[in-house]
């Protein structure tokens, strides 16, 4: 069974940092592009970042470029999102999603709250 | 690419047909997906390639369209289908979602 499980969410101050992790199982993680998608409270979905399978090419939405970094550790079947210089508007549930273009499996999400 | 969904809310009786629309600000060819999201849950992929049902998705869900105009049809609404539906284009970076259509019980 395909599973992706996020961890690392929590409360951060504006300007602070958090690192999200996503542990994958049930599929060939090294062969799969992966993504992070977020959802602010009561709002719609926003794609945040993606990473290719083989050469770890990375892609970002404009609002997080230079602040967030997506990476992967293929031997550990784990995806990461390093979030720096956090802003109040980054407050959201962050979903780890399998595949890089459309998303066929999603985790349950990790809540990130940015507040002083 | 801006994705616009209509209507924002759709009130439908169980057993009736529901038709949801999604419009792209420029062509996305057939690179469009639909998702269903229930309260407190992660989204679930329904359709990709504008019209291909994802694994284990019932046949009452169908997608159509290409270019800039797309439709998701639920042929006979079941109780478990009342949810929010999002479209998403993957033709160009950044990937973008529509604002969603909430399908509620009439």
In brief:
With 116 residues, chain A is mainly beta. Helices cover 0% and strands 50% of the residues of chain A. Chain B is mainly β.
Description:
The complex is a heterodimer of chains A (116) and B (106). Chain A is mainly β and 116 residues long. Chain A is 0% helix and 50% strand. Chain B starts with a strand and ends with a strand. Chain B has strands at 3-6, 9-12, 18-24, 32-37, 44-48, 52-53, 61-66, 69-74, 84-89, 96-97, 101-105. Chain B has 106 residues and is mostly beta strands. Chain A binds chain B through residues 35, 44-47, 50, 59-62, 95, 101-109, and chain B through 31, 33, 35, 37, 41-45, 48, 54-55, 86, 88, 90, 93-100.
Strand-helix topology:
The complex is a heterodimer of chains A (116) and B (106).
Chain A: E1 3-7, E2 10-12, E3 18-25, E4 34-39, E5 45-51, E6 58-60, E7 68-73, E8 78-83, E9 92-98, E10 105-106, E11 110-114
Parallel strand pairs in A: 2-11
Antiparallel strand pairs in A: 1-3, 3-8, 4-5, 4-9, 5-6, 7-8, 9-10, 9-11
Chain B: E1 3-6, E2 9-12, E3 18-24, E4 32-37, E5 44-48, E6 52-53, E7 61-66, E8 69-74, E9 84-89, E10 96-97, E11 101-105
Which key terms come to mind for this protein?
heterodimer, A: 116 residues, mainly beta, seven-stranded mixed β-sheet, four-stranded antiparallel β-sheet, 11 strands, B: 106 residues, 0% helix, 50% strand
């Amino acid at each position: 069974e395909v599973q992706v499980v996020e961890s690392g969410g929590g409360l951060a101050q504006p300007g602070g940092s958090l690192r999200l992790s996503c542990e994958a199982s049930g599929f060939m993680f090294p062969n799969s592009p992966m993504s992070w998608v977020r959802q602010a409270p009561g709002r719609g979905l926003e794609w945040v970042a993606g990473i290719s399978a083989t050469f770890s090419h990375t892609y970002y939405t404009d609002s997080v470029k230079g602040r967030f970094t997506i990476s992967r550790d293929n031997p550990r079947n784990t995806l990461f999102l390093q979030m720096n210089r956090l802003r109040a508007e980054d407050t959201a549930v962050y979903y780890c999603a399998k595949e890089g273009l459309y998303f066929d499996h999603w985790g349950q999400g990790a809540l990130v709250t940015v507040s002083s | 690419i801006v994705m616009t969904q209509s209507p924002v809310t759709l009130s439908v009786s169980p057993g009736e047909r529901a038709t949801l629309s999604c419009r792209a600000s420029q062509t996305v060819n057939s690179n469009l997906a639909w998702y269903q999201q229930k309260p407190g849950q992660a989204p679930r992929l329904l359709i990709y390639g504008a019209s291909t049902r994802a694994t284990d998705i019932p046949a009452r869900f169908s997608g159509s369209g290409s270019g800039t105009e797309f439709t998701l049809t639920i042929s006979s609404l079941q109780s478990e289908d009342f949810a929010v539906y999002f479209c998403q284009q993957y033709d160009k970076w950044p990937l973008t979602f529509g604002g969603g259509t909430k399908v509620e019980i009439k």
